[in-house]
Structures are given as C-alpha cells and as structure tokens.
From TrEMBL:
GO terms for molecular function: ATP binding; dCMP kinase activity. The gene is cmk. Residues 12-208 form the Cytidylate kinase domain. GO terms for cellular component: cytoplasm. Its EC number is 2.7.4.25. ATP binds at residues 16-24. GO terms for biological process: pyrimidine nucleotide metabolic process. It catalyses: dCMP + ATP = dCDP + ADP; CMP + ATP = CDP + ADP. Pfam families: Cytidylate_kin. This is Cytidylate kinase. It comes from Blastochloris viridis (Rhodopseudomonas viridis). Its main location: cytoplasm. Keywords: ATP-binding, Cytoplasm, Kinase, Nucleotide-binding, Transferase. Belongs to the cytidylate kinase family. Type 1 subfamily. It is found in: Cytoplasm.
Length: 214
C-alpha cells in the first residue's frame, strides 16, 4: 500500500552511485528547508549487518528477508553501519527483490510526512518517490569518489587502501546498476549533478539552484 503524499509537500529525491556526495547534500538540503532526512542506504546496510551478525551470508534470501522485516529505524548504529564491509553486504541484500519490497512501505511512509522529506539512495526518484518535486542524480568519477570514501574510512581508523576502496566502489556500482529490481539509474526527469570538480559548498549551491528552479 503506498502512502499518500500531499500535493504541496516538498519531497526531494537524491540518487547516485557510492560516495558521490548524495548523503552530504541530502543532510544539508534537509537542514536548509527544515525537512526530515532519510539515508535509505542505512536500511540496506542494517539488513546486511543483521545477517552477518547472525553468522549468515548476505546472499541468503530467507535470512535477509527475516532481518528486513524486523528492522527498527530507531535502533540503527550508524557509525558501525558506515564501515566498508557493511557497504558490500548492503549491496548484496539490496539485490534481493523481496528485501526491497519489505523496505518499500517504510520509505514511502517517511516520504509522506506533511511538509515533505529528503531521501537519498539509489531508487528514490525511480521507485520510492516517482512523483518527488525535485530529483537530483549525483555523480562523480569513480576515482574521485574512491578518494573521498578512502579519506572518510581512513579518518575513522579503518585499515583500507585507496585501491581496495576503488575496487569496492566499482564492484558495488556494477552490481547496483545491473540488478533486475530497482537498479541504479537516473530517473528520466532527474537533474544530473556531477560533483567531480565541486567541493561540498559548491555542490550544495548547485543543488539549491536546481531546487530553486523547480
Ligand atoms: N563535493 C564533495 N567534495 C569533497 N568531498 C565530499 C563532497 N561530497 C561529499 N564529500 C565527502 O565524501 C564522502 C562521501 O560522501 P557521502 O555524502 O557520504 O556520499 P554518498 O552518500 O553518496 O555515499 C564523505 O566523507 C563526504 O564528507
Ligand atoms: N535506495 C537504496 C539505497 C542503498 N541501496 C544499496 O545499499 C548499498 C549501500 O548504500 P549507501 O547509500 O549506504 O552506500 P554509499 O553510497 O554511501 O557508499 C548500495 O550499494 C546499494 O546496493 C539500494 O539498493 N537502494
């Protein structure tokens, strides 16, 4: 069952590949407009993490569905979920169509809050909120994205190399783009925002410009 979104609500959808900067932009946009923000990648990371914690394989359909069905948004351990191994596990459970079905309603209900909401992920503009007022597809070259994620993970004390991070990003992008259900693809009516040569402030200004032109 899909949630009813008021016609005057400002729903903003940001999608894009790993470490393109969509989460950073989504947070800043939500702050600017006083809207709630949902990082939908965290949901898939939490499912992957839950399966791993029970000693399971993220490719195990039954185990992933069971964890997804019991997901508690209030109990997400964000710091842990942002670790490199969780990104890979997330991408594997995210390729299971039944897991996506279980998480669909939760995301739509979040988007249906009275004033609107900002959601970031892979399929927000295409599947979760096809009627979003603004859709932005955030990209950057794989090398620049890997550099950003490498700095982030190294800053958290994770023992990673740039080469490992780049390989992880390319593997996840390929899996996310080629899966049959809700693949990573820009919605036909999304605005493309390439952040390769933009710092966070410049990317934020470009996003505000897109939103202002809606
Ligand atoms: N335009 C940018 N320039 C430089 N670093 C950025 C930019 N946007 C985001 N970052 C940094 O890159 C990393 C990944 O950004 P994040 O917003 O988490 O990406 P995503 O949500 O697309 O995976 C974070 O450490 C963030 O601070
Ligand atoms: N709406 C979404 C969000 C994330 N995901 C999956 O979850 C994984 C982790 O998403 P994320 O947004 O936390 O990853 P990063 O872009 O931050 O690296 C992605 O690689 C996707 O496989 C998805 O399928 N659909």
């Amino acid at each position: 069952m899909s949630a009813y979104v008021r016609p005057d609500a400002l729903v903003i959808a940001l999608d894009g590949p790993a470490a393109s900067g969509k989460g950073t932009l989504a947070k800043k946009i939500a702050g600017q407009f006083g809207l709630p923000h949902l990082d939908t990648g965290l949901l898939y990371r939490a499912v992957g993490c839950g399966v791993l914690d029970h000693g399971g394989d993220p490719g195990n359909v039954a185990a992933a569905i069971e964890v997804a069905a019991k997901l508690d948004l209030a109990a997400l351990d964000e710091a842990r979920l942002r670790g490199a191994t969780m990104g890979e596990a997330a991408s594997r459970v995210a390729a299971i169509p039944e897991v996506r079905v279980v998480l669909l309603d939760l995301q739509r209900r979040f988007a249906a809050q009275p004033g609107g909401a900002v959601l970031d992920g892979r399929d927000i503009g295409t599947v979760i909120c096809p009627d979003a007022k603004v859709k932005i597809f955030v990209t950057a070259t794989p090398e620049v994205r890997a550099e950003r994620r490498f700095k982030e993970l190294a800053g958290r004390g994770e023992a990673v190399t740039f080469e490992d991070v780049l390989a992880d990003i390319e593997r996840r992008d390929a899996r996310d783009s080629s899966r049959t259900t809700a693949p990573l693809v820009a919605a036909a009516d999304a605005h493309l925002l390439d952040t390769t040569t933009l710092d966070i402030d410049a990317a934020f200004r470009a996003a505000l410009d897109i939103i202002g032109r809606r």
